[in-house]
Fold this protein.
Amino acid sequence: MKILVTGGSGYLGKHLVSYFGANDLSRRSGLDVLSTSDAFAASEYDVVIHLAARMDRSHETADETFQTNVHGTINLLQAMRRDSVFIFASTKDVYGRFAGAYSEVSEECQTAYAGQSPLEWSKLIAERYVEYYAHQNGLRSCIFRLSNIVAPPSKGNVPGFIGHYAEGIATGKKLRLPGGGRPRRDLLHVDDLAKACEAFTGSIIRHGLYNLGGGVRNSFTLAELVEKIETLSGKKAVIDKEPLPDPVPMNYVTDVSLVRTELDWEPSISIDEALESLLTTTDK
């Protein structure tokens, strides 16, 4: 089975390329999803995992973000052959503040515009194109609205906030915590994301949309997460006494019941395991 990962040189993409032995379509590899000729490479693959995106929340550069995240996705979808699999990495942040009404956020949470940035809104718009072209052109499609993914650091990539905390604690840098460390988030290891991609590819489901995260068992307040990193690393965090403002929503924990039911998938890597692998890499 031939697998292509767009954005395969990025923070998550490098790990998925390695996991699957996949090829990479990214600007660092000399290819661009905004080029229709480059995107046509998708026609040669059985599975395309689409991670490539402009991760910019700035309203000043909204046009560029929509161009990359929407039109780049369309270029790939138009190139794919019938019955191939398209897996789209969306984000939990499409729910905006509405997620705050749930102790566990399900796919039923509304996605009406409530101040989401160009990044989140472009992802939501791209989701609709995935659904349209998948039905129109006979593709199998899967949309994963990703929670917070833990991945070991890789050269040339900016880590997520978990990697930022681990790096800061390892090097003695001062950390500022949103909401004084009170916000709760669920965490998922990148290999569990890869296993979810495998689960959909090997299923009989034609079209799926799932919230994907660590769920309740792998959820922590930011203060608890820092404490856990301290325990595993043997190093003390230096916390800035001036906290960052409260995030919106304050808490986000993924309801994984739908993906568990339809794909027989659930997180298999504990947060201790995930953080240990992250810290081991960071210490090197």
Notes: The two ends are 34 Å apart (CA to CA). The chain has a mean pLDDT of 95.
